[in-house]
Amino acid sequence: MQFEFSLPATIRFGRKVRFELNALLPSGAVLVLTGNHALEFLQREKSALFGARPVEFLAGIPPEVPIDFVDAARQKARELGACAIVGVGGGSAIDAAKAVAALADENFPTADYFYLKRMASPRRVTFAALPTTAGTGAEVTANAVLHDAATQIKQSLRTPDMAAQIALIDPELAEDAPFGVMAASGMDALTQAIESFTSLRANDLTRQIAAAAAKDLLTHLVAACRHERVAVDAVCRASMLTGIAFSTSGLGAVHGLAHPLGCVKSVSHGVACAVLLGAVLKNNASRVPEIYRALSAALGYADAGSFFADVATLREKLGIAAKFDFALTVSERDFIVSHSRSGSMKCNPVAYSDGELGAILDQVCR
Length: 366
Hints:
Layout lengths: L9 E4 L7 H4 L5 E5 L1 H9 L1 H5 L4 E4 L8 H14 L3 E6 L1 H13 L6 H5 L11 E6 L12 E5 L4 E5 L8 E4 L9 H20 L5 H22 L3 H21 L3 H13 L3 H19 L1 H10 L5 H14 L12 H9 L4 H5 L6 H11 L2
Parallel strand pairs: 1-8, 2-3, 2-4, 4-5, 5-8
Antiparallel strand pairs: 6-7
């Protein structure tokens, strides 16, 4: 057996670890990319987090990070002379910061790297990530999911050294997230754990990590949405673990479909995963039941049916519907299917035809 992990050089987990940031960063100016929700606390804690160094905040990052936004932020980093880029927020803020840090010293548009026309040089600025949601695991992954509004394509940007040098996972930053945000991001994390376990690229170690994360999410997610301290800590830890696992294993058909569907219908990624998950589990398990028996056993279930039922019950408790409240046009369905053949889809334990993927989409739409 052979496998490899590529993780941040420094991972700190625990309450208050965010205050270690200033000591871990090199001296010099910092550009912080963040969501609007996190901006208030960043401004309030600016001196404790960054000391007296020059700091600029760039907020208002869209849920689907446009490549044009990355271009503008790269220019801001150059004007500031930033020695470090810090992403604070959910997956979008952290992915945007990853891309800016990776391309800060490059001379060509982000689109050139997004479409693999060019390869980036090794990163020269420090990149740090502080998540404020518990879902994507973006703080420990080595890719940035971006969106080209002109083509409606959403895919990962990858460069040789995109993983953060510093990842600080402080559950205090996530514990006041609105119920719906924690629910959707937590279902994204649960999907990541399940798909990491069942991926064609999984190994014994990634399966152990993924199973541990899935157990915590199934047990604690509802309580975390209600801001219970122990549960929030468990869900934040589980989210980080899913990122560690799928960085090596890859994901599956849920994520393959969720990315283009989110672009076409403006559905939040976590909700898209939550709704697609049940249908993909059912279809996958009908073809490769053995991997879902193994997953169910690892989670302490007697059979896969009981596990699937608990996943559906969790989704219901979180107030997420079993189906989307829209129908897809033929052209929308064709676009989603044709743009679902990502690295995630290639890791799915079942290879689906276009017609079969279209049928799965029909199962989850009104």
